[in-house]
Amino acid sequence: MNGQTTMGLAAAAAAAVRPCRRRLLSSVSAGGAKASVTPLFPRRPHPQHHHHGRRLPFLASAASQTSHSDPSSTPTTTPTPVNSDPRSAVAGNLPFFDRVLFPGSFPPVETPPVEEPAPPTDEGLASPVREESETEREAWRLLRRAVVSYCGEPVGTVAAEDPECTEVANYDQVFIRDFVPSALAFLMRGETEIVRNFLLHTLQLQSWEKTVDCYSPGQGLMPASFKIRTVPLDENNEAFEEVLDPDFGESAIGRVAPVDSGLWWIILLRAYCKITGDYSLQERVDVQTGIKLILSLCLTDGFDMFPTLLVTDGSCMIDRRMGIHGHPLEIQALFYSALRCSREMITVNDGSKHLLRAINNRLSALSFHIREYYWVDMKKINEIYRYKTEEYSHDATNKFNIYPEQIPSWLVDWIPEEGGYLIGNLQPAHMDFRFFSLGNLWAISSSLTTPTQAEGILSLIEEKWDDLVANMPLKICYPAMEDNEWRIVTGSDPKNTPWSYHNGGSWPTLLWQFTLACIKMGRPELARRAVAVAEEQLSADKWPEYYDTRSGRFVGKQSRSYQTWTIAGFLTSKMLLENPELASILTCDEDLELLEGCACCLSKRTRCSRRVTKEDIVE
Ligand code: GLC
């Protein structure tokens, strides 16, 4: 948790969404809300939110009290007309959109009729074939307790629901990244409605105008989290309405944009459609636009020389300063995965072909870059150890001018003979050699790595079990930064002291990503071992957010209890192990065609830096 403060009501009024308004009796507590009825209308409507297929929430009249529960239901009131040309809404804000996404012909504006999701079939679901353990039953009870409703409909789960803790900070919010394992558990259980609602409501939040000191980030940004507030409708406090109040990072301690949110949203959308068979959701025009808005943020040209995404510190699961600014692996793996998922979901038409080409080019360059430059094993480290520096040429071996002195002393002994991993970050003259679990695991699941590299990562985790799993799976990163390095890199962050929290703490939520990667690589027994370690402790320790110490023995110093993604991560792991075929809703297979798509091959003037052959890459 990055110490976000509870937003003041004035800020809430400026930012809140009101997809529905329902009258609540005056006796109902307003949750301390004393705000006047400041209009909560968004200033920038979603370019393709219009009145045909979906309620335009902010246009719904207070009088219409019916059918509010279904965000996709046809409105019963006549909404104020909105501009039907999305280009006018985005022009000026998204030059990339004009050029790539809307090259001449525009996709049809009418929303396809909303079909009810196909009822999940028995074989698509994780029906427990054995009786659930007491720990699993408790986990389900707790997960359901964490569900939040909006206008009577489930829309997400709060980050933590700890009845003993009075200081909620922002753990009472629905975090996009935290909800993913909850969503998967519900999906595999056949409870798909909450996920659909979540996807559609967060889509609405995407279009909100947000400003930090007069600066507005791009429209495709998805919030880090949202909260449901109850605010009075009038000064007499006689009636109240519920509003969705998003946080895009503008009230986070470092004002950092949650880059991972949109990527997770795309990944979850694909998982939902695959497991329910309800592909009409991804085909909806507003959903298609949502995907494109996210991609437009990621694919816009800047000053970059690398295909990786350049982000600031704290823009993902590690949301405090931890020295991961630049091109952190976690973001690259999620980016790659989101591109792969989008490529499957984007409707092919004249309006999308440029975008699809841009996606393919980026996928190709990104996978080459990560496979080639982020990968380290015994052989590669030995190569770096003998690097020459100051090489000015296309043929340089040491392309990023890495000084061999950067190889940290811990790594020299730590790197096993077999296997290897992807480093945390790569910049000019800088390799971050720390092992980051989420990035490595997601690189396996999405096929960002070669199959051999994927096997190598799992074999390293097995070999380094006592460092990475020990008493609680899984270390968020290894090793911890200490002393001066901790002081300089974290800014002396008291929460990220060595072997605590983000700085080498152990996060049980990572279990589900580990399980997924193990299943993909045909090594479920490794995941079972880790699940067994967690199962022994989690319930007794009240499902903590994280553990401290080198071997993950203590419940984290400032750890919350009953952390939802700890609970959901455990359940998701169990269900995946029982139904390994369901892993495919999240994974991507190796795409050999991408390896052919090197953009350098198109130009004779550019010397291709891919000296490795296709066979080398595929291995
Ligand atoms: C912490 C984690 C972040 C998570 C949040 C809510 O800030 O770093 O990844 O989303 O808590 O659980």
UniProtKB/TrEMBL annotation:
Keywords: Carbohydrate metabolism, Glycosidase, Hydrolase
Catalytic activity line of the entry: Hydrolysis of terminal non-reducing beta-D-fructofuranoside residues in beta-D-fructofuranosides
Cellular-component GO terms for this entry: mitochondrion
One of the GO BP terms on file: sucrose catabolic process
Superkingdom in the source lineage: Eukaryota
Enzyme Commission number, as recorded: 3.2.1.26
EC primary class: hydrolase
UniProt feature, compositional bias: Low complexity: 28-37, 64-86
Region feature Disordered, mapped onto this chain: 28-89, 107-134
Keyword Hydrolase in annotation: yes
GO molecular function: endo-alpha-N-acetylgalactosaminidase activity; sucrose alpha-glucosidase activity
InterPro entries according to UniProt: 6-hairpin_glycosidase_sf, 6hp_glycosidase-like_sf, Glyco_hydro_100
UniProt feature, compositional bias: Basic residues: 43-55
Keyword Cytoplasm: no
Compositionally biased region (Pro residues): 107-120
Family of the protein in this entry: Belongs to the glycosyl hydrolase 100 family.
Function as written in the Swiss-Prot or TrEMBL entry: Invertase that cleaves sucrose into glucose and fructose.
Protein name: Alkaline/neutral invertase
Organism: Brachypodium distachyon (Purple false brome)
Lineage: Eukaryota, Viridiplantae, Streptophyta, Embryophyta, Tracheophyta
Gene expressing this chain: LOC100824983
